[in-house]
Amino acid sequence: MKIEHIAVYVKDLEASALFFETYFQGKRNSKYRNEKTGFSSYFVTFDNGARIELMNLPSVADKPVDIPFYGYAHIAFQVGSKEKVDELTKRLEADGYQVMSYPRMTGDGYYESCIADCEGNLIEITE
Q: Which of 35, 54, 89, 124 yields a CA-CA distance of 20 to 30 A from 82?
């Protein structure tokens, strides 16, 4: 069994798709739009077959601003080495994204950093 995809509601569908294409080499499909409901989405596919469905629906409310909160906490991307974790974290910070935790070795043995994407969703970058 494998997870087919993860879905997340976003305010700015185009900016979110571009984020995953630019920094994580994702490829989006053609935009789906339901004219009756106003719902629209992209599936962004990554090299290993993993997918994220980015969804927009004007009636969706903002998530809580206090972290932590119950629910999904982050999406983690494995980039292959400590050097790549460092490089991508520096690139994202230079491009204006907030670094939530700088690259470090965690107590459970991961070398990782964490940034907030253009929607404030947490993205973990691991070796």
A: 54
